[in-house]
Amino acid sequence: MREIAHTVLTQLQNHRKETQDRRITDLFSADPARFEGYSVRCEEVLFDYSKTNINGETLECLIELAEAAGLSQKRDQLFSGHHINVTEDRAVQHMALRNMSNFPVVIDGQDVMPSVLAVRAAMTAFSKGVRNGTIAGQGGAFTDVVNIGIGGSDLGPVMAAAALKPRCDGPDLHFVSNIDGSDILEVLEKIPPATTLFIVASKTFTTQETMTNAQTARDWLVKALGENAVADHFIALSTALDKTAAFGIRDDRAFGFWDWVGGRYSVWSAIGLSLMLAIGPEDFEEFLAGGHAVDRHFQAAPLRENMPVLMALIGIWHRNACGYGTHAVLPYDNHLLRFPAYLQQLDMESNGKSITLENQAASTQTGPIVWGEPGTNGQHAFYQLIHQGTSVVPADFLIAAKPAQAIGDHHEKLAANAFAQTEALMQGKSAKEVEDDLRHAGMSEAKIAQLTPHKVFPGNRPTCTFLYPGLTPFVLGQLVALYEHKVFVQGAIWNINSFDQWGVELGKELAGELLPMVKGEAPAENRNGSTVGLLEVFHKMRGK
Ligand code: F6P
């Protein structure tokens, strides 16, 4: 963090110290219009942050921090194609993929929109062909599509296909990501080779998991249908089009993208093809349009009304002023089952850094641990800790006004639970309220004294709520882009590079070294005692 921003951060931390005992409920008592003042809309999405411990002064200080960190300039650099990913010397322009305007997007002196639109047109033609059966496998129209990819080449399409499940009217979609053989075997067991399309999704086309799974799928297909079937049954999504042909993929079945699209930002690119096959090109365009609407809002709205900026600033308040270490994402929307996992990569791979852009050790905490599960399931698992544990966990709640599939009063009950949890977390329940309840129930004074401390809820636990009419492709596009820009804003304030991921390399390297030892082809030399011991027992357990 730079000097001036650091000074403002210190002010923010002092402000936190001074307001340590402030109750969110008191902020509501002091300001009856707090909901209007501390909620913001962007197209279909309402973001309510009134149930956080933030007032006008806090917000002023946070906005000052954003300005001191040069947020507006950094945002301009992002959108104008600067190589802000400095360690990889790349621009960051996934927004071009959802650019629905006629404006050019220039990277390194060239308008990239013609290439973006050409790939999207090729994806659309291919999707239409597969969906109407004019592009088919050796056994006829494709009934099944298997996306083989990992990380950003998996999580985006997996999350979005689950989110838009009611819209999935194309071939059955399967995802294989893990190198654990069970992942692919369990898919291969249930699909017919003659009508299955395999998508090898890999930005680099070198990732061990994906290339191993792709080779296994290829061997399986060749065994069933012969070598010639590969050209009809395999397609590739990659920036490394030089490598896809060697795998046997036809040039016109290789859909490209560019190095200015980070893996965890690639669902908008050709990597989204499995999603497009499932929901159709029109819905896919709606998804892009939702993302584009957020891009326009992020660029144009004043910071005080800018949804991703506010999301980021609230996160900074919780992380750097309040010292909260994790952030929960709690969708009251079963179709958003994989949204927390998707956000884990987006947030933790982007902002899990400790070196600044000036090559200094970060002097503040950076990205929090992101986690979550859909409600109401979480309520019967980990909410105990959120309500009464010693750690405060700021949480995002997400809920649609209308259900994707209506049945009885399920949705009203779901919504009541979501709103109730945010209320309970904020209000808590005092010892006096607990005692009154117990007395009213006729409990003895001795029992009341024993039980009361266990039934007290401290409250004052912050939550934000996203409310939208229904989980349409447009709304999903908005939600994803909102979190993307939130992550960008936080990275800008922490002065880190949110767009590289060197932290994933060492493990990959060591796995490469260890593989011959695991296979028993090389002795376990020069390793630490634990690894040597584990390898020895591993081999014994395998009877070798
Ligand atoms: O290991 C991390 C990572 O590089 C992610 O950033 C990326 O999304 C994933 O691996 C998959 O990479 P690829 O698309 O090149 O196979």
Short précis:
The chain is an alpha/beta fold and 544 residues long.
Tell me what you see in this structure.
The protein is built from 22 helices and 15 strands. The strands form 4 sheets. It has a 6-stranded mixed beta sheet, with helices on both faces. The protein has a 5-stranded parallel beta sheet with strand order 8-7-9-10-11, sandwiched between helices. The protein has 544 residues and is an alpha/beta fold. The protein is globular and about 80 Å long. It has 3 domains: 226 residues, Rossmann fold, CATH 3.40.50.10490; 185 residues, Glucose-6-phosphate isomerase like protein, domain 1 (Rossmann fold, 3-Layer(aba) Sandwich), CATH 3.40.50; 39 residues, Phosphoglucose isomerase, C-terminal domain, CATH 1.10.1390. The site of 6-O-phosphono-beta-D-fructofuranose (F6P) has 14 residues, from loops.
What topology emerges from the helices and strands here?
Blueprint: H1 3-18, H2 24-30, H3 34-37, E1 39-42, E2 45-48, H4 56-68, H5 71-79, E3 106-107, E4 110-111, H6 113-132, E5 136-137, E6 140-141, E7 144-148, H7 155-163, E8 172-176, H8 181-188, E9 196-201, H9 208-225, H10 229-233, E10 234-238, H11 241-244, E11 254-256, H12 273-279, H13 281-300, H14 307-321, E12 326-332, H15 339-351, E13 369-371, H16 383-388, E14 395-400, H17 410-427, H18 431-440, H19 445-455, E15 463-468, H20 473-494, H21 505-518, H22 529-541
Parallel strand pairs: 7-8, 7-9, 9-10, 10-11, 12-13, 12-14, 14-15
Antiparallel strand pairs: 1-2, 2-15, 3-4, 5-6
Helix pairs in contact: 1-4, 4-14, 6-12, 7-12, 7-15, 12-13, 13-20, 14-20, 15-20, 18-19
The structure holds 6-O-phosphono-beta-D-fructofuranose.
The site of 6-O-phosphono-beta-D-fructofuranose (F6P) has 14 residues, from loops.
